[in-house]
Design brief:
165 residues, mainly alpha, two-stranded antiparallel ribbon, 74% helix, elongated, Tetratricopeptide repeat protein 5 OB fold domain-containing protein, TPR-like_helical_dom_sf, Ski3/TTC37, TPR repeat
Length: 165
């Protein structure tokens, strides 16, 4: 139970009730209130071990423009359950916004690994490829991208050569 969180006449809220309340606050775009409920719940032993609570905390911090806190929350969620994609997706979005290719690539590699089908894997690449291709001249550290970037650049060179003739 979460002490200090009101469950109405029934006493403290359960984790499930707390997560539902946070989801409702996020849906209403009340990120300050949702963040406060997250913080209070994360101070409990049960809350500190809740994957969804950490993901919601990451969402709130992202929307409140505190990216370092958002990244920390998403990373904690990935430690608790590395095989769930929502926290990885949050990290991907933050690293995309920050144009941080070095941190983005391992996250996308994980999302590609978690994708259930080819369309899902391709979708992950499509989201980040513009940033990867804009990193021309920089070392791309991900094996999953190296081929894609080099293949794209080879095709561009061939197209330019054909157009020049």
């Amino acid at each position: 139970f979460f002490f200090g969180l009101s469950g109405g006449n029934d006493g403290p809220m359960s984790l499930k009730q707390t997560l539902k309340q946070i989801r409702e606050l996020i849906d209403k775009k009340e990120f300050d209130a949702a963040s406060k409920v997250c913080s209070d719940a994360l101070e409990t032993e049960e809350g500190a071990g809740s994957y969804l609570l950490w993901v919601f905390s990451g969402v709130c911090h992202h929307k409140l423009d505190t990216p370092d806190a958002s990244i920390a929350a998403y990373q904690k969620a990935t430690e608790l359950d590395p095989n769930q994609s929502p926290a990885w997706q949050g990290l991907r979005d933050l690293h995309l916004e920050r144009n941080d290719v070095a941190k983005l690539l391992p996250v996308v590699d994980k999302l590609v690994h978690l994708a259930k089908d080819v369309a899902g894997r391709c979708g992950q690449y499509k989201k980040v490829l513009p940033l990867i291709l804009s990193a021309e001249g920089k070392t791309v550290a991900s094996q999953s991208f190296r081929f894609k970037v080099e293949d794209h650049k080879t095709r561009l060179r061939a197209q330019r050569a054909a157009a020049a003739k």
